[in-house]
Amino acid sequence: MTAKVVFITGSSRGIGAACALLAAERGYAVCINYLHNQAAAQQVVEAIERAGGTAVALQGDVASEDNVTAMFRAIDARFGRLDALVNNAGILQRQMRVDQMDAARLNQILATNVTGSFLCAREAVRRMSTAHGGAGGAIVNLSSRAAVLGAAGEYVDYAASKAAVDALTIGLAREVAGEGIRVNGVRPGLIRTDIHASGGEPGRVDRLEAAVPMGRGGQPIEVAHAVLWLLADESSYVTGSIIDVAGGR
Ligand code: NAP
Predict the structure, then answer these.
(1) E strand or H helix that includes residue 188
(2) Catalytic residue flag (residue 237)
(3) Residue pLDDT, tens place only, 2-36
(4) Given a cut of 90, is residue 180 above it in pLDDT?
(5) Which residues span the domain enclosing 170?
(6) Cα distance between residue 243 and residue 142, in whole Å
(7) Domain total of the chain
(8) CATH number for the domain that contains residue 220
């Protein structure tokens, strides 16, 4: 039987890379996506291939409709099937208050985190929905605990974009529940990745982890385990759900 195929956006580093490695371990052929960091994406591909798995790296900006359609066409050409999508690519920008934010910043956050997730979900549904002749599948959207906590003084724009991602999870889940597709979300808390450096504070997890009930930041693999469970048949009756992976915070 041909391996199931998963497309994981933003999987050259961090949580996406952990999801890619775990998906390969579970037997998926993995489509890696990156924006700029080809070397990191290639390392993930090579790690999967060394372990006997199958992976391909696709460059593309999820905020670009042309890039998204081109990546899905590349998946069609290479594998001829798609079973799962992880909408993981996400950005934040330097910490600031709402009264300092300009439209360019807001539009970039929303384009990547919200538009990007919608466009990839659209392409996945067109391929996986039984209403479109597909065989069904699963989608997992990476949200954030910020969607609930609000990220005051840091990035309320990012928090708002993740609240939009949660609405996508709930609405799309209901839209395609009768078409063989489950749609769920994962809300990570403080996870040790490079994303905090892009907010201008590489040591953010160290500063805040004492406030986490479990007393520590999380590792990308701890998020990946939740994502892979939501993709698997083990969660066959779960749709429209959002799992917090945040040490109790
Ligand atoms: P990260 O370490 O900063 O990695 C971001 C990944 O996304 C990289 O692979 C990057 O590619 C890719 N990327 C960025 N913009 C992209 C675009 N426009 N198109 C395609 N790919 C793009 O991030 P992370 O911490 O692993 O976060 C992953 C997801 O979890 C995000 O949605 C984030 O919001 C969410 N999250 C993270 C945390 C946390 O504490 N880390 C907490 C809550 C939620 P390049 O390598 O090419 O730059």
Answers:
(1) strand 181-188
(2) no
(3) 899 999 999 999 999 999 999 999 999 999 999 99
(4) yes
(5) 5-245
(6) 10
(7) 1
(8) 3.40.50.720
